[in-house]
Amino acid sequence: MLFTSASALCGTARSLDQLVIYRILHGAGGGMLTPVGMAMPCRTFPPAGRAHASRILVVPTALAPAAGPVIGGLLVTDASWRWVFYVNVPIGLAALVFGSPFVPDQPPTQAGVASGRSGTDPHHRQMMGDSSHRTVT
Q: Can you give the residue ranges of every domain in the chain?
């Protein structure tokens, strides 16, 4: 949320001093994106599903550094430098809206174990596409 909010602020900057301050916030938020994004599968998925979720996250993490300068150049050339920052706002809001329902609330002491879920929970395993595990009742 910090990255998205700071992106909007950077786009609205009216002076170089404001832009510098907002970019500091933007950099702090951006610096957290990859480590937090890579840690989220550990909090959201059971151990058996983490590798699959991590593989999905690797694609945008690898493509963004290559696509970013090209998209940024097009935005600056065809629109305004402000759109380099504004483009992050709808993406960040979409990530928040669509991602929040899948990230369980959980105390920090239980990192790595999703709330109410375990590797043997049949409903969660089915959602992850693993039907090989059977529980005995």
A: 2-127
DSSP the chain: -HHHHHHHHHHH--SHHHHHHHHHHHHHHHHHHHHHHHHHHHHHS-HHHHHHHHHHHHHHHHHHHHHHHHHHHHHHHHS-TTHHHHTHHHHHHHHHHHHGGGS----GGGTTS-TT--TT-HHHHHHTT--------
Neighbours of 40 (CB within 10 A): 17
pTM above 0.85, yes or no: no
> Is-contact 133 120, C-beta < 8 A?
yes
pLDDT tens digits, residue range 1-19? 899 999 999 999 999 999 9
- Please, what's the largest Cα pairwise distance for the chain? 66
At residue 137 the predicted structure's pLDDT band, cuts being 50, 70 and 90, is: very low
Tokens found for residue 2: 């910090």
pLDDT at 113 over 60: no
The count of other CB atoms within 10 Å of the CB of residue 23 is: 17
